[in-house]
Task: inverse folding
């Protein structure tokens, strides 16, 4: 099987990265202008907003997977790829639950659990390494701009912040210094949890779509 580099990973993720950056910018503008829910959410964490990049692996996972499959980079077993991806999802959920418990009782333990969550994000790579590597590259390209936005959002208005989900801190972290707040709210989750989420979700949808399309071709009647 050819190496994943034969599909030019940088070129493959270029357009999705630009689209992702555009969505990030749109969300910043929407929250600053207080555009309505459920499209935007400026509360801490910003969960549930329709305009956001966390949903994009549902689209770009299949896009990357189909491109890789067309280039001969499909895994030997799509069933195995799907299985590893769901195993990663289960591990992700368990790690997330433990992180919530840690924040309530042993906050210092949460950092180690975020690293566990990142490690869990590599589980799908065992099932489809080429797709996992592409999704990892895309995840980094998607999340680095968010880190930049969060830096300026937290620094904005003389340190009071912009009032967006990029800078609003939960009560237990609101009294931290800027450096610790940025580390805890930006660097840690963006480079662990969201990287893992992107790889896991993208692999699940990517592998399933390729499996469905391949099955459709195999069961299609031959031309008479």
Result:
């Amino acid at each position: 099987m050819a190496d994943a580099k034969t599909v030019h990973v940088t070129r493959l993720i270029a357009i999705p990265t630009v689209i992702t950056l555009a969505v990030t910018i749109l969300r910043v503008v929407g929250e600053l202008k207080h555009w309505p829910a459920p499209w935007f959410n400026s509360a801490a964490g910003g969960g549930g907003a329709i305009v956001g990049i966390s949903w994009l692996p549902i689209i770009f996972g299949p896009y990357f997977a189909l491109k890789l499959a067309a280039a001969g980079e499909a895994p030997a077993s799509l069933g195995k790829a799907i299985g590893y991806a769901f195993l990663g999802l289960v591990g992700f959920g368990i790690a997330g639950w433990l992180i919530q418990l840690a924040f309530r009782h042993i906050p210092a333990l949460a950092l180690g659990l975020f690293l566990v969550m990142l490690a869990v994000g590599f589980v799908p790579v065992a099932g489809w390494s080429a797709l996992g590597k592409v999704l990892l590259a895309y995840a980094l390209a998607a999340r680095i701009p968010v880190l930049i936005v969060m830096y300026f959002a937290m620094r904005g208005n003389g340190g009071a912040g912009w009032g967006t989900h990029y800078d609003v801190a939960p009560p237990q972290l609101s009294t931290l210094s800027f450096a610790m707040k940025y580390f805890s709210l930006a660097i840690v989750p963006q480079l662990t949890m969201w990287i893992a989420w992107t790889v896991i979700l993208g692999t699940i949808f990517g592998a399933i779509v390729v499996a469905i399309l391949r099955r459709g071709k195999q069961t299609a009647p031959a031309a008479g």
Observations:
- Residues 57 and 201 are 6 Å apart (CA to CA).
- Residues 1-5, 220-224 have pLDDT under 50 and may be disordered.
